[in-house]
Fold this protein.
Amino acid sequence: MEIESTAAALQIAVGRLVRRLRQTHVPGELTLAEASVLSRLDREGATTPGELANLDRVKPQAMGATLQALEQRDLVSRAPDPGDGRRVLMAVTDEGRRLLTDRRSLKTQAIAEAIGRLTEDERAHIAEAAHLLDRLAEEL
């Protein structure tokens, strides 16, 4: 299969997967942007709003709105950067970690159930594809 047709097929498949995952969104749950920021802070630790915007490849204003929504729900906290008092660091709160864990559990459970309906060979391919998709995301 040539690269362009693979790219087109991948875009369609990933788009369908994302839409299906979004369909499970319950009002009051995290948006995809909020979940991305919360997950990054949980994995990588406290960082500045500007760095979060760069890492998620969004405008600082969009990141500011996301962080404000998370702060209003007490899912992230803001503190002065000890190394540079002019900057602030954002960090996930205990409540944010709890919500993130609950959310991961529900989404992961739904995906795991769907993967469980695949053949053993298909499950092996999905495991490899997950790794490759992560690498691909880093290349974009």
Notes: The chain has a mean pLDDT of 89. The first strand starts at residue 76 and ends at 81. The CA atoms of residues 27 and 103 lie 13 Å apart.
